[in-house]
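Continuing from the previous page of notes. For each protein in this section, the sequence appears first, followed by its structure tokens. Read the first protein now.
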Amino acid sequence: MPERERYDLGTPFLRLEREGHLAWCTIDRPGSRNALSGAMYFGLKRAVQLVNAMEEPTALLVTGVGDVFAPGGELRGRVEDANPVVEQLGVGDVLPFEALRQSVAPVVSAVNGICQGGGLLVAMLSDVAVASERASFRAPELLRGIADTGYAAYLPAHVGVAHARDLLLTGRTLDAGEALRMGLVSRVVPHERLREEAVAAAESILRTAPEARLHVKRILHERYGQVDRMTMDWALFRGAEAREGMRAFAEKRPPSWVPEALRRGTRA
């Protein structure tokens, strides 16, 4: 049996462990329900880079702990893994999404539970997303005042414009069955077989020719729209609605823009 190798991703809340041709990146921040800090987003990007640099062809598998895959970014202001290097970088340099879609090494997401926000983008931009029957999916950014231009560019290519409008403008939650029917993920499996099926998907991709695979992936990804990073940077960090949305989330209340008649005292 090959020896297990471990890699530092710059945050205690991500584990990258490799055995032979498989490397597992586990999102492990249960105290914050796996919310992704800036250092964790950057760590996911680093995991992609490390696996692509390995001499032996290796697949990257991403999963979470407990009943959560990843709910998206940390909105409550809790910083437990501050990284001064990451703090000086722009959004485009920190986020892992372009690295995921451009990876020569196979990337498979094993979606074990709640999958929202940036976590859903990780799953969508993996080569294959294998979801547990217990998984749920949501794109809640507009509920938080965040104009996520990445979603606006990526989601229509995945599920069509009508479904993309529905998901982005309502922020509703899908179960695994509806996500599969919509094309948000490609496989749903019994929960107890999730890791086994994710490994099978990764090993299937490893049997294909890397250079030819990269050409096919590039053509497939041309269907994505252009991500407007300038708007994303402004809306995420400087926009008044995003600041109010994050405060409301942290305070467990509806944001100020919600009509009085629709307020129920708790956040959506």
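Done with the first. The second protein uses the same format. Note its length before scrolling.
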Amino acid sequence: MTPYSVIIVDDEKPQQRLLSDMLRDYPNYKISMICNGVDEAITQIRNHRPDLIFLDVVMPPKTGFDVVSALKEYKFNYIFTTSFEEYAIRAFKVSAVDYLLKPFGTDDLAAALLRFEEKKKLIDSNENIQTLLHNLNSNSNSASKIGLPGVNGYIFASVGDIVRCQADDMYTTFYMTNGTHILVSKNIKECEQLLEEYGFFRIHITHLINLDHVVQYFKGEGGQVKMSDNSMVDVSRRKKDDFLRVFKKL
């Protein structure tokens, strides 16, 4: 499982260290950045797009709510940290996952993280259902659209516009006919399972290609294919014979 990325926003160094130390007990949470104030937080959150933000409320001359307001177009998960209990009501009005009243302990943190994980699973489940329904309602392979889970939600793309998919560690980059590319939060094996019924072929451990976009095959130990975007993709020796059988039928 890919760790949840976390950004801590707090203007008090002792509180930053305390929360960082507490999160060490949760290996599935990785701190991407620690910010000392509102303006820095807005910039870094936009850059890093974390899964979860621990957000201090009072950071003179501004507040954590200024961060939320500046980033309202994004769907981030916030856990507010505050010394003032009266801020709790306002925290939930801006859809916070939870709030932690300083000084908080390990049990408080554990409960807040559990609520975050439950909320995220529910959101992911709803998105997966919507994607499934969208895919089932597609009329034909050439016109089909699929939901690609990206950094900020699902991107719906026409299958025919996907030229190739390249492994990128635990992610996969989709290269499109218009020259753009989409980073998808699924590994290439999962993408292969999603696309194989649409005429895609796993040509190499790192590559999945759309057979409709193959322009030419070049002989070699495994060989290479030229795609419609002019990219050259290696064919693995193990996949060569299977690919050539499919390629001759095109």
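What the second structure shows: The mean pLDDT is 85. The CA atoms of residues 215 and 230 lie 9 Å apart. We return to this in next week's lecture.
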